Amino acid sequence: MNPQRVRIDEIDILRGLALLGVLTMNLAEAFRVPYWGIHPEAHAGAVDRAMAFVGTVFVSGKSFTLFSMLFGVGLSIFFERASARHPNAMRLLARRLVVLLMFGSAHMFLLWHGDILMSYALIGLFALPFLRARTRVVLGVAVACFVAGPFLRSWPPLREALNSRIPGHYEDALRVYGTGTYGEILRFRIDEFFRVIVRVYGHVWPRELGNMLVGMLIWRSGAFSRVVAYGYRRVLSRIAGGGIALGAGYSIYGALHAPISGVGLRSLVHGLTMLVFALGYGAALLLLLASARWREWLSLAAPIGRMAFTNYLTQTLVFTTLFYGYGFGWLGQVGYAMSVAIGLVFYGLQGILSTVWLRHFAFGPFEWAWRSLTYGEWQPLRRAPSACTPGAATT
Questions:
Q1: Which end of the chain has less Cβ packing within 10 Å, N or C?
Q2: In the structure, what pLDDT confidence band is assigned to residue 166 with cuts at 50, 70 and 90?
Q3: Distance in angstroms (rounded) separating the CA atoms of residues 4 and 175
Q4: What is the mean pLDDT of the chain?
Q5: First vs last Cα of the chain: how many Å apart?
C-alpha cells in the first residue's frame, strides 16, 4: 500500500474523530447557549451536571486543539505536494487561505459567531513562513507562543483591552438569538463581533498559532508513516499515556478546585494542558490505527474527516436553524446531556451521508468549491471509476 495514502487516510480519521469532539462541544457550549464559557448547569439535574463535568475535563478545548494541530499538518502536506507540481507553491497556499478567509467571514457574519474558519485562515497566513523555516526555529516560535503569549496577555493594559466579559451581554445574546428575526440576529452578531469576539481572538490566537506549528513539527517527524515501527510505537505509547494522564489530572483538579492564581500563569497552564492532552489523544489514536481491528472501526470516521469543511458548515446550518429565533428557538431550552445526545446522532447521520457522497464524488461540495477557487478553475467533482480513494487527493 502506498505509504503516502496511508498517511492521508490516518489524518482523515483523526480529523473526523476530532470533529466529533468539536461538534459535541459546540452543541453543549455554543449552540444551546449564546456565549462560550457559560454553563447554566448549577440547578440542572444530576445527568446534566455529570455530563458537563465529563465534557469539561475530557473534551472541551482538547478536540479544538487537536483540530488546530491537524490544520498545521494539512498546511505542511499541501505545501509539500504543491511544491512538487507548481512553481510557486507558497503563493498557491496563500490563495487557498485567502479563499478560506472569505468562506469564514461569510460564515461568521451571516450564520454563526462561533466560526473558526476565519481564525484558522488568518493564523495560517501568519504560519506560512515557518513551512520553510528550520525545525529549531519552528519549535522556538511554538514555545514562545505557549509561554510568552499568556504573560503578554496578562499585562494590565492589554488584559483590560482583551477582556471579553461585558456586563449584560449574555442576557442580551440569549434574548436576541433565542427570539429574534434573522435581521435582528444579523445586526446583533455584527456588533458582537467588534465588541466581543475580536477580544476573544486576542486571547486564543497565540495559542492557536502554537498548535499549528506543533502540527507542522508532527508532520516533519514522520509520525504518520513510522507508527508501524516497534520503537516508534513505544514513543507514541509514552506520549499517549503521559499526555492523557497529565491532561486529565490537571483538568479534574481545575474542575474541582479554584483555578491557579495569576492570569498569565493560569493561561499558560491551561494552554499546555490542552496541548499535552491533545497530543496524548492523537498518539493513542495512531496506536489504535496500527491495529487492524481498531482501524476497521475507527475508519468509519474517515469520510467525515475527508468532508470536514462541508460537515462543519452543515452543522452550523442545521443547528442555528434549530436553536435560533428564526428557526425552532431551542436556545436555552436544551440541557447539556440532551445536546450531546443530539450531536452523537447527527454525527452518525453525517457519517452515513459522507460515505454515500464519496462513493460518487472526489470531494465534498464545499471542499470542491474551495479547491476550484484556489486553483482558479473548476475541478472535476465526480470520481472516475478507476480513481483511488478520495483521501489521496490533498492538493
A1: N
A2: confident
A3: 50
A4: 88
A5: 20
Residues in the chain: 395
Query: Cell triple for residue 12?
Result: 482523515
- Contact in structure between 75 and 93 (CB atoms under 8 Å): yes
Buried b (16+ CB within 10 A) or exposed e, 70-92: bbbbbbbbbbbbbbeeeeebeeb
Burial classification of residue 244, based on how many CB atoms lie within 10 Å of its CB (0-12 exposed, 13-18 middle, 19 or more buried): buried
Residue 79's Cβ-side half-sphere holds a number of Cα atoms within 13 Å equal to 23
pLDDT for the residue numbered 49: 86
Which residue, among 304, 305, 314, has the nearest Cα to 366 in the 3D structure?
314
Helical packing angle, 89-110 and 182-192, nearest 10°: 120
**Minimal CA–CA distance to 336: which of 46, 19, 20?**
46
Q: Residue written as cell 502540527?
A: 215
Nine-digit cell at 125? 497566513
pLDDT at 164 over 70: no
Query: What is the tally of structural domains in the chain?
Result: 1
Confidence grade of residue 389 (pLDDT, cut at 50, 70, 90): very low
Host domain of residue 127: 3-392
Burial bucket for residue 377 (CB in 10 Å: 0-12, 13-18, 19+): exposed
How far CA 126 is from CA of 94, 117, 123, 195, 208, in Å, comes to 10, 14, 5, 24, 11
Q: Report how far residue 148's alpha carbon sits from residue 165's, in angstroms, rounded to the nearest whole number.
A: 23
Assign 157 a pLDDT band (cuts: 50, 70, 90).
low
Contact 273, 255 (CB under 8 A): no
3-class state of residue 36 by DSSP:
coil
* Number of other residues whose CB lies within 10 A of the CB of residue 139: 15
